[in-house]
């Protein structure tokens, strides 16, 4: 059954995340393990980060819609040091990837890759969406496609 929470609860569930009117639906989706990105009902274009109007046609008929979660790694960096965060140990450099989602060229989502050696994380590698629990909330991550998750 989908989780539905008030705005106040949503902010409490994601401490430190910049939740706004524009991206609240995206974060509500995370609670249901659904990756939602804004899409325009006029021109059909996706866009991220979430904005109240479509950057392509200026329509205000935008809403958060689920994406397939398939994509390819567009950029990868490996953090040797970074902010303290639950579940992150920088003794092994922590991968941060921007994934170009299958829905549209240029539609990207930034997260990490789980269950892979850093040597196997490279630009162009196909990935699929996966979910882990971090600080008590579902967190969208990616797994290399073709690898067991
Ligand atoms: Zn549009």
TrEMBL record:
<dbReference type="Pfam" id="PF01796">
    <property type="entry name" value="OB_ChsH2_C"/>
</dbReference>
<dbReference type="InterPro" id="IPR052513">
    <property type="entry name" value="Thioester_dehydratase-like"/>
</dbReference>
<protein>
    <submittedName>
        <fullName>OB-fold domain-containing protein</fullName>
    </submittedName>
</protein>
<dbReference type="InterPro" id="IPR002878">
    <property type="entry name" value="ChsH2_C"/>
</dbReference>
<feature type="domain" description="ChsH2 C-terminal OB-fold">
    <location>
        <begin position="65"/>
        <end position="131"/>
    </location>
</feature>
<feature type="domain" description="ChsH2 rubredoxin-like zinc ribbon">
    <location>
        <begin position="33"/>
        <end position="61"/>
    </location>
</feature>
<dbReference type="InterPro" id="IPR012340">
    <property type="entry name" value="NA-bd_OB-fold"/>
</dbReference>
<dbReference type="Pfam" id="PF12172">
    <property type="entry name" value="zf-ChsH2"/>
</dbReference>
<dbReference type="InterPro" id="IPR022002">
    <property type="entry name" value="ChsH2_Znr"/>
</dbReference>
């Amino acid at each position: 059954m989908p989780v539905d929470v008030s705005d106040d609860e949503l902010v409490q569930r994601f401490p430190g995340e910049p939740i706004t009117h524009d991206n609240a639906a995206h974060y509500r989706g995370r609670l249901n393990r659904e990756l939602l990105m804004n899409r325009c009902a006029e021109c059909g274009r996706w866009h991220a980060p979430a904005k109240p109007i479509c950057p392509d046609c200026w329509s205000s008929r935008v809403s958060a819609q689920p994406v397939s979660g398939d994509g390819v790694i567009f950029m990868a960096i490996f953090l040797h040091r970074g902010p303290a965060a639950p579940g992150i140990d920088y003794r092994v450099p922590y991968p941060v990837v921007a994934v170009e989602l299958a829905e549209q060229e240029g539609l990207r989502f930034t997260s990490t890759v789980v269950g892979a050696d850093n040597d196997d994380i490279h630009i162009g590698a196909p990935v699929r969406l996966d979910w882990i629990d971090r600080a008590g909330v579902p967190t969208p991550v990616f797994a290399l496609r073709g690898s067991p998750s």
